[in-house]
Automatic annotation (TrEMBL):
Record keywords: Membrane, Transmembrane, Transmembrane helix
Keyword match Transmembrane helix: yes
Organism: Mycolicibacterium moriokaense
Name the record gives this protein: Uncharacterized protein
Ranges annotated as spanning the membrane: 23-43, 64-87, 107-128, 135-153, 188-210, 231-252, 272-292
Length: 311
């Protein structure tokens, strides 16, 4: 503990501030892609046909633009947060502040990336080409997003522990002086990888399979089906705001970390709650994609060919 308090030696053997600059550039590039997608959707306003097509496309565009705009704002924010993190040095790297910022910026980044995919899969589905893309985003991506967020908790847990009494031997493990909060967070992160991530994968896959025929349905739904369709349609529009709310929380929590205290950090319990909230939000987004009625309906090429012949 004394070595940490006087010399602030980087005993963690990993300086995330060096990698934060690369994350910032990546977030900025993805933000540019999100902005380009918004412009493409807006440009579609000038290429509409009949009034019926216009009404249907307006509903689609409302869903697309909301998700893409939230992703764009989130990625710009994540780029700024990682840029600030890249400037951390000295005691902040081993005393909790820098690694707290890593966790918070990671939540903003990974959720914004998922929201970008959330909007992109709906754009592709509008062209009746998104069945496989939807499976990747709705089933395979949520566990990956959570896994990236959870793995950052290891770094935070180590920064909350005391420095080892002896330097680590070559090729030997780190032996930090665990505190109650750091050990609790370390154990939570490793237990979550064994039960929460597989649970999220199973739930997402189960809902995907349950909604297989629903996503390919072409007929009008009944009373209950109509109610479910309206709920899912609302979720596709408004769930991206939940991701944006998480980004807003991240910005506020980062601002609270005092510049005068290198040891300022988010608590272990706060980090646990944040991970669980992230799990709930990402599963709701996945479920809404899996239950979007008619979005995976294959195009009727025979009907299109008949229409062209009549024309």
């Amino acid at each position: 503990m004394g070595a940490q308090g006087t010399s602030c030696e980087l005993w963690l053997q990993f300086d995330f501030s060096q990698a934060a600059g690369n994350y910032s550039q990546l977030a900025a590039v993805l933000a540019g892609i999100g902005f380009l997608a918004i412009m493409l959707v807006v440009n579609r306003q000038h290429r509409r046909g009949s009034a019926g097509d216009a009404a249907h496309e307006y509903e689609q565009d409302n869903r697309f633009v909301t998700a893409l705009a939230c992703a764009f704002l989130g990625l710009v924010t994540a780029a700024a947060l990682f840029a600030l993190l890249s400037g951390e040095e000295g005691c902040a790297l081993v005393s909790g502040r820098a690694l707290s910022k890593e966790v918070l910026a990671g939540v903003a980044f990974y959720f914004s990336v998922y929201t970008l995919l959330f909007g992109a899969v709906q754009v592709v589905s509008a062209a009746a080409m998104g069945a496989h893309f939807r499976f990747i985003v709705a089933v395979l991506t949520p566990p990956v997003v959570l896994a990236f967020i959870v793995t950052s908790l290891d770094d935070l847990a180590l920064s909350l522990a005391n420095a080892p009494n002896r330097p680590a031997q070559p090729h030997g493990p780190l032996l930090p002086g665990w505190t109650d909060s750091s050990e609790s967070l370390w154990n939570f992160a490793h237990s979550v990888l064994t039960w929460l991530i597989p649970t999220v994968l199973v739930i997402c896959l189960a809902v995907w399979l349950a909604g297989f025929h629903w996503r390919r349905a072409a007929d009008s739904p009944g009373r209950i089906g109509s109610a479910l369709t309206r709920i899912v349609s609302g979720a596709l529009i408004y769930l991206p705001y939940a991701s944006l709310a998480l980004v807003a929380y991240v910005v506020w929590r980062t601002a609270v970390l005092s510049r005068l205290q290198p040891g300022a950090h988010i608590g272990a319990e706060q980090a646990k709650v944040l991970v669980l909230v992230c799990a709930v939000v990402v599963m709701l987004q996945s479920i809404s994609l899996s239950l979007a009625r008619g979005d995976d309906r294959p195009p009727d090429f025979h009907e299109q060919a008949s229409g062209d012949d009549e024309a």
